[in-house]
Design a protein that fits this description.
The protein has 3 helices and no strands. It is mainly α. It folds into 2 domains: about 10-40, no CATH class; about 50-100. α2 (about 60-75) packs across α3. The protein is elongated. The termini are far apart.
Amino acid sequence: MTTSRPKRVKEIPVFRSEDEERKFWAKADSTEYFDWSKAKRVVFPNLKPSTATISLRLPQGMLDELKVLANQRDVPYQSLLKVFLSERIASERGRAPRRAKRASA
């Protein structure tokens, strides 16, 4: 039985600026500097998710009810709709909904 040796990687140079580093990585092969077989998936939970603008047609009565509920909670109706959608998606997928931090004005 043979044991595999760890992959030898090159030492990453010290950069004087982000611009210099950016230029280096634009040309360098990262597999020469990192052993990607040891890479682990990470999650950045505090990053602001990107958003997309959509057009959604709702029955007027449903929109009116949504606005009443939002007014009772003192939040914009679009924000409340996102909360409702997030909770339902989480429920359907069997996990707890993610709580977004409220943006300060």
